[in-house]
Amino acid sequence: MQAEVLREMESTIDRLCPVPAFNALLKQFARDKAAETSRWGETTRLVHAMLGGASPQIGRLAALTELLVLALDIADDLQDADNAEKSWMQAPPELSLNAVMGLLMGAVAELGRLQAEHPGEPMPNPGEVGQIVLNAVNGQYRDLTNDIETEQDYIAVVQQKSCMLLKLAYYMGYGALPPDEAIAERLDELAGYLGVVSQLSNDLRDVLRYDVKNDLLHKKRTLPVLFLLGGDADEFPVIRRYYDGEIDRNEFLSHKQACVDYIRESGCIEYTEVIKTLFLDKAAETLDALPADAERKERFRELVIGPRTPDE
């Protein structure tokens, strides 16, 4: 995270939270988030700049993007009961939940403040921001209830949950520009593709790890897991038996190495990589077709997709 974004986040917290202990807790969470490779605020800035924007308020909007994503990250970790090393997981859960509510409502209040302070400037609509966050919350509900049976279900849940964070970061940038429906649709489409790419990368990592974040342990139905469940049950029945409740977690863990070996040999990694590449190619095509400043668009491309390969 850029240092200036963190400074603006802390200034925003100072405006929103007069209770000293609560103020300090939120700043601790913000600094914890800043220690990650969090680029949500930078994404907001780059979207705004590549579309020709030069709003003096873009720094405050970038900070609000980070605060909103921080709130959703805290909620996600509380619900999944993982990432134990994070400061919000080490704080009393009732205080972390209070932080989620404070960050969400505070960000909406701050957007309203910006609109009131600068009535002649285009600003992101707090109602639209709330709708994007609500869409992510609906996607999180489907994820928590494991409401996934098919690959189509999986893509739908990812686009409703993970893609919304990208949509939020983009909207906070282009929402500070005069409305352009075609640009908005193109960026929403880009968010849909890149959100799936990001989630598939996470799923590939999580299916091969054997700690509390392993998707198999939690019986999640990610794309690589759906591939495994759709294969020949006789070839390696342990995964299917665990998902069907025929064996418990301890027995499943006793097959740890055999399970990892099967996953590596099953083809699920290669299959997921192919699907990921398809979505990445669609994202690149969508971004290339976006009318924007060429130099700044290339910087944005490097951030969200990566540098071009020699044959591109």
UniProtKB/TrEMBL annotation:
Belongs to the FPP/GGPP synthase family. CDD domains: Trans_IPPS. It comes from Paenibacillus flagellatus. This is Polyprenyl synthetase. It comes from the Bacteria. One of its GO terms (molecular function) is prenyltransferase activity. Keywords: Transferase. The keyword Transferase applies. InterPro entries: ComQ, Isoprenoid_synthase_dom_sf, Polyprenyl_synt. One of its GO terms (biological process) is isoprenoid biosynthetic process.
